[in-house]
């Protein structure tokens, strides 16, 4: 068996049939391509007092998420079901969409696991992971030389 690296600009990727079905004639039909893009992008930032995660999930609602912390592991999951139906000119189209994802992150030891907070706003889930007092950066101290 020979493995060939995928190249989206290659003419052998499916030809005119794929181009036809991916055109604007069928804007709501993904032809099985959503499985590769279901996992939302995540930004992780470290601040002096906490860590922040931003999960980009614009099509989800607050109720579609589950965030949990257990044994030093932060798990963020989402699930969305949608149904649409179109009736016009004697044609009927009915589509179902089921999307889910699950991401887990190992937490640093300095995170206060009991104080993790999550807020969903404008399509982004913000998760704040406060650091313990020992881990917070302290102001530099000048040491007198004797």
CATH topology of the domain at 38-130: Immunoglobulin-like
**Rg over C-alpha atoms, rounded to the nearest angstrom:** 23 Å
Helix amount, in percent?
under 10%
Most strands sheet? 4 strands, antiparallel
Q: Can you tell me the overall shape?
A: elongated
- How far is the first residue's CA from the last residue's CA? 74 Å
Rounded mean pLDDT is 77
Task: Give a description of the structure.
The protein has a domain of 93 residues: Immunoglobulin-like, CATH 2.60.40.790. It contains one helix and seven strands, in the order αβββββββ. Strands 1-2-7-6 form a four-stranded antiparallel sheet, with no helix packed on it. About 12% of the residues have low confidence. Belongs to the small heat shock protein (HSP20) family.
Write out key terms for the chains shown.
7 strands; 1 helix; three-stranded antiparallel β-sheet
């Amino acid at each position: 068996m020979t493995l060939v690296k995928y190249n989206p600009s290659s003419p052998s990727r499916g030809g005119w049939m794929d181009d036809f079905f991916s055109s604007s004639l069928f804007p709501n039909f993904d032809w099985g391509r959503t499985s590769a893009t279901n996992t939302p992008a995540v930004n992780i930032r470290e601040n002096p007092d906490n860590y922040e995660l931003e999960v980009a999930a614009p099509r989800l609602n607050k109720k579609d998420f589950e965030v949990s912390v257990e044994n030093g592991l932060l798990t963020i999951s989402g699930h969305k079901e949608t149904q649409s139906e179109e009736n016009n000119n004697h044609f009927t189209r009915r589509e179902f969409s089921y999307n889910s994802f699950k991401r887990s992150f190992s937490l640093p030891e300095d995170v206060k696991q009991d104080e993790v907070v999550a807020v969903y706003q404008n399509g982004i889930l913000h998760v704040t992971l406060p650091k313990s007092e020992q881990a917070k950066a302290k102001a530099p101290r000048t040491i007198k030389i004797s």
